[in-house]
From TrEMBL:
Signal sequence extent: none
Matching Pfam families: DUF218
Domain (DUF218) ranges: 27-160
Gene3D superfamilies xrefs: HUPs (3.40.50.620)
Coiled coil: none
Protein name: DUF218 domain-containing protein
Amino acid sequence: MDENLVDHYAEILYDYHFLKHPLQKADAIFVLGSHDPSVADYAVQLFQEGWAKYIIFSGGVIRPIGELRNITPKSEANAFFDIAVEAGVPAEAIILDNKATNTGENFSCTRKILQEKGFDFKNFILVQKPYMVRRTYATALVQFAEFSFISVAAPDTYDDYIAKCAENNISKERVISNMTGDLQRLKVYPEKGFLVAMDIPEEVWAAYEKLIELGFVGRMAN
């Protein structure tokens, strides 16, 4: 397999998925669950820079997050909580949702917890992996429509993000399969009502098809 060609196609998908919303202050930094601990790192950075006074970690899937950081397998939310507290975020500034198992539930479960706890938040900074920024935003437009939000990730280039993932024991093959899976979801989920339809340029879809031909199919939706 020609790795340069794989990277060429993968970078096209990466750049498409990675919306570049400018940062703006919000009531809370809302972090959607992930296997990637660098997502929590970026949320901590935003908190420490003063973009919001609270962090929400949502994710009930049990994962071996942070294998290189001495974090035993636990829910995404709890693993991210540990990362944030170790980095100096006060525990009282963190809100946890340990029930969500997918992107839609990240929003519905978090909404319920905020209502139960009496938080009247209106504005959110949604944080995910770079290649999930667009799908997060498209989902929020349906599932979180009553709120204001932007969708962001750490400002890494494709090469930088692949290198960061390698440091966290996440393979490039997994990243690319996740990206093809996310593009497929952007294509098929609007008809299910899960997210708002996004325009997918021909070049992006062609790169997706090339990557599918090369075998990056591990994250396809049913």
